[in-house]
Amino acid sequence: MKAFIRLQIQLFIILLFQTLATTAQIKPLPEKYQVLPFGSIKPGGWLKVQMQKDMNGFVGNLDQLVPELINDPIYGIGRLHKNSKAKDLGNLKSGDAAGNDQYKWWNSESQSNWWDGYIRNALLLDDQVAIEKVKKYINRILATQDEDGYLGIYDNDLRYKFTSENGELWSKTTLYRGMLAYYEYFHDEKVWKALVRAVDNVMQNYPINHSDPFNVGKDFSGGVAHGLTFTDVLDRMYQLTDERKYWDYAHFLYLNYSENVSSETDAQLSNILNPDYKLNTHGAHTYEHIRPLMVAAYASGNPDLQKALKTYLERVKNCTTPTGGAIGDEWIGGRTADATHTGYEYCSLHELMDSYTALFQKTGNMEFADQTEKIFYNAAQGSRNPNHSCIAYLKTDNSFEMMGSKNGEIEPDRKQTRYKYSPAHQDVAVCCTPNAGRISPYFLKSAWMKEGQNTLVAALLCPNVLETTIQNVPVKIDEITQYPYQNYFVFKIEMGKANPLRIKIRKPEWVKSIVTNEKYTIEDGFLIFDRNFSKNDQITLEFKTDVRIQEDLNHEKYLSYGALVYAKPIAANEIKGKVYATGFEDLNYNPVDLTLYTYLKNNKAIYKSGEILLRLENSKTKQDELVTLVPFGKTILRQASFR
Ligand SMILES: [Zn+2]
Q1: Between the N and C ends of the chain, which has fewer C-beta atoms within 10 Å?
Q2: From ligand 1's centre to the CA of 113, what distance in Å?
Q3: Is position 540 within any domain?
Q4: Which of 487, 520, 544 is the last residue of a domain?
Q5: Are 552 and 514 in contact (CB under 8 A)?
């Protein structure tokens, strides 16, 4: 009887996928906003200063800190073949689920994600020395492309012939994303042609609806599952060309991933449709897979996939802490987010943020822009070391020590070393540092978008300079602000000539009132400024708000003002660990005195010059005290939520 039921279920799943693959391609959905070519939006103010520091620090120097990983010629003379051995990455392999297969392709991820961040930082900062280095790198990569267009990490004996874990699509995704940025910036036709041929080569060798790229057996297949984000490349190429084949292929990849066995199960359609399923697998995968699901839903217009996307996002919400960090330490394991006990990986922060920017671009739903800012300005800033050029691999909202383990918890099955600050984290994996170099350029590329022919949309607020054209008239907008540390903005507008222009500026969810001399209307949560602008013009704007006290999923209280969450810093001793090079070392922190505070109803919280002052109960003395909270992103050890 059981076998019969199982057969029935299998038949149902097969029928479901057949229906989705054939009849479901109803009509693609229109995208709400257009992404501007990479490089149209450059950083300003504090963000530019921070990115320059990163280029002088862990972003600009990672190839010096782990040269054997970054310089591995894995796309060229060092391509993988049948007799290739797993590489020694210099890590401890403590708590890896993966076994040796992932160590074969892993350098492609480390180096291509690092280059992607490096390319984007170099271009956005007009860093001429770095740009020369980037040009040489691009030429080196182009020289590895085969006659038939293959641009990847496998020799002929392996490519497209896998029956187990591999990095075929993933090594391409990470490489092509950086190449796309380079192409969009320089309009370099030879790079574009190389990309078109390389993507065609994938589509020829894994033909749409007649191949099985995700059929790789039941063992660990994390690299294959990462490869689903090849849809990032396809989505952008669709946007740049308007050619349906890219979106159709992305739809195919998502369905093929869904109908095969995978070690990363969260985004598989049957699991999303199962109301009892809880997010369970590797966080970074779970959050990056929002994008393939989203692209499949848009490419097909299939209402079932749109519904699945909604369900999936609800599940992600249950994994998200007050600062926007979602469980990623590293497996989700059916848990609900907790400000003290669930950590987030820097990779998972980047992936979730990138997914939210793409969701905002496609849907126009403000909630996704608010979520993007929440992650970037809180969880992500709060996982950087405010005083040194290094980041936390894993971090929690409430951070009581950073000595390797999660707030001192012992993990029986592994020696945990991820809760510390490092410029490379080579003892675990060089994944988070490259992604920490990608996050700022990826945030910036979505700061402005375009709607139709004559509307510019300020989607994410930050200091930046936009340069684009509206109906062939050059437009430059310098967004001058200290945001999110202050909520005052000057949008300085220069145009080739006086011209009518429609500017939409997002009103964040926390805004209480708006101060401006301009006339505006409000539409879908945007302020709309629609008038004739002179050649040199400006809009000034201030958002007023109050201290907000909110409850997280565990009914703990946390405080925010504007886009920023605030935390009580905990004084710490700094202990040096491994030294990679002068100025590039691992740093651990233990608390000088770990006194925690309890929430008081009558707390009289006020905001005063960048700080929140309030009364909390000292849990040791049981006395009320006046406590100062500072922006979460400026802390190392901290208490961010209060019971
Ligand atoms: Zn990572």
Answers
A1: N
A2: 11
A3: yes
A4: 544
A5: no
